[in-house]
Write a structure and sequence with these properties.
It contains twelve helices and six strands. It is mainly alpha-helical. It folds into three domains: 3-98, no CATH class; 108-176; 197-309, no CATH class. Helix 10 (243-259) packs across helix 11 (261-272) and helix 10 (243-259) crosses helix 12.
């Protein structure tokens, strides 16, 4: 949060360690020693963003890597001890061994929309938490009217704040990605929240070459766990992706299986074949993502009669 541990090799291949502040003064000190290097850092919530913006402003080459990938790389060396200095050394070795791709800096509007979206998720969690507490207090044998009244006031305020943030987010998205927002919203079964989540989580579908990547982003791609003749794990979804996006898509699937003709046809066919209803809903989630990718790739609005009009 406050400091950065840095490791690099100088022109004589000597390993150098630096310990600088996580602010502009520290960044200037860092570039005095490392300007022109390929910087590699792991994603650490918001604490790496100041350095990201600074390096981008200075036109330096840098990569932001998934923290889990870096963690697994460090564990592979079977180190007994863990220190920031040693982690910086392993991170340097990780960059040398894997040569990660340079980070593609999103627009500033992306960070603004992401912050708004995260705040909406936080308010939703608080509203749910307080609602559950009210339910529990209503079942209690003692007097808790004052507490319930206080919780209801908080819920009312949180809902008011949430509505304002939703309006602000919609305005920001309309300014940033008006066409893509319109295209995703046109899909029957996907609401404004799902559209916002998809655009923000995928950074406006940046680098999406096929629908399988989009499904993988949501953690809905199937995975198999088997080895030899003894290990026969059942196939399931990976869940390595956006948990919030996946939760919203699941709720959208419950709606799409009744309102979207293509999704309804898929759901009914799978259930008729004896498939589990939850499995059928996951298939509907994937179907929705395929439709989203098709609309974005072709730059068109969703049409339920698309296949019928093909010559």
């Amino acid at each position: 949060m406050d400091t950065l541990d840095v490791c690099f090799q100088n022109e004589e291949d000597k390993t150098i360690h630096l310990h600088v502040n996580n602010n502009k003064t520290g960044f200037k000190e860092l570039l005095k020693h490392c300007s022109g290097y390929h910087f590699v850092m792991e994603s650490t919530g918001v604490y790496h963003l100041n350095l990201v913006f600074y390096l981008h402003q200075k036109s330096e080459v840098f990569s932001v890597e998934n923290a889990l990938k870096v963690k697994r790389y460090i564990q592979m060396h079977l180190d007994r001890n863990k220190t920031d200095k040693k982690d910086a050394l392993r991170l340097m070795e990780y960059g040398t061994d894997t040569c990660p791709k340079p980070y593609e800096m999103p627009e500033a509007a992306y960070f603004e929309c992401r912050s708004l979206n995260n705040s909406i998720h936080d308010l939703t969690k608080e509203i749910t938490k307080l609602s559950n507490r009210i339910h529990a207090l209503n079942k209690s044998p003692y007097d808790s009217k004052a507490v319930i009244k206080s919780y209801k006031r908080l819920i009312k305020q949180f809902r008011k704040e949430k509505i304002e943030l939703l309006e602000e987010l919609d305005n920001k998205l309309t300014e940033w990605q008006p066409e893509k927002l319109k295209q995703v919203k046109s899909i029957t079964g996907l609401g404004p929240r799902a559209a916002a989540e998809l655009i923000i989580y995928t950074k406006a579908f940046r680098g999406m070459d096929n629908y399988r990547q989009l499904i993988s982003y949501a953690g809905l791609s199937p995975i198999e766990y088997s080895s030899g003749s003894s290990i026969r794990g059942r196939v399931k979804i990976s869940k390595r992706g956006g948990k919030q996006l996946r939760n919203i898509l699941y709720m959208c699937a419950l709606n799409a299986k009744d309102t979207n003709p293509q999704c309804k046809k898929l759901y009914d066919r799978m259930v008729a074949c004896g498939k589990n209803k939850k499995l059928a809903l996951i298939a509907v989630c994937n179907k929705l993502l395929k439709i989203v990718f098709g609309c974005i790739r072709n730059g068109t609005l969703y049409r339920t009669d698309y296949l019928e009009n093909l010559v």
